[in-house]
Specification:
Number of strands: 6
Strand content: 15-25%
Radius of gyration: 17 Å
Shape: globular
Number of helices: 4
Low-confidence stretches: none
Structural class: alpha+beta
Largest sheet: 6 strands, mixed
Mean pLDDT: 89
Distance between the termini: 68 Å
Strand order of the largest sheet: 2-1-3-4-5-6
């Protein structure tokens, strides 16, 4: 039996905090999440290629990590639930916020966006990792699919 055990790879989850908890930004509303996410977007590509991102939050709603999930074409970027929840579990996140941009500049969620949000809410409930929001981001602003909150950017 010992010979068989040596043929499998060992799986270990390793995580080390790089930022003190007190220094992590706190997300109290969709606008807070948008500001963090928007600053991570390549402004030269936001109107060109769809990209999806993930914010991982602790119980105090402080950002633990920001993850770029996928790049797509002009009309979609795949968000794989296995990648999202594997990342959230490894990071020990209590909640997640999904985001993707609409290169068209249209802030209205598509039926696919709404369905994806509902699917992630349901999966999150099963895993006790809350989907706190799903934001649509454009060069000029954002829209929350969950709270319907919206906001804009003032380009100087």
């Amino acid at each position: 039996m010992n010979e068989l055990l040596t043929k499998f790879e060992e799986v270990r989850l390793v995580y080390r905090n790089k930022m003190k908890v007190k220094d992590r930004p706190k997300v109290q509303c969709a606008n807070d999440a948008f500001n963090i996410l928007y600053n991570s977007w390549d402004k030269d590509q936001i109107d060109n290629i769809e990209e999806s991102k993930l914010l991982l939050l602790d119980r105090q709603m402080r950002v633990m990590s920001l993850v770029s999930l996928s790049f797509g074409g002009m009309t979609e970027a795949i968000i794989d639930p296995r990648v999202v929840f594997a990342t959230a579990l490894k990071r020990r996140a209590n909640g997640i916020i999904l985001a993707h941009n609409h290169p068209s500049g249209n802030l209205e969620p598509s039926q696919a966006d709404i369905s994806l949000t509902e699917r992630f809410k349901s999966l999150g409930e099963m895993m006790r990792i809350s989907l706190l929001d799903h934001l649509i981001v454009t060069f000029d602003g954002f829209r929350s699919i969950v709270s319907n909150e919206s906001g804009g950017i003032h380009h100087g």
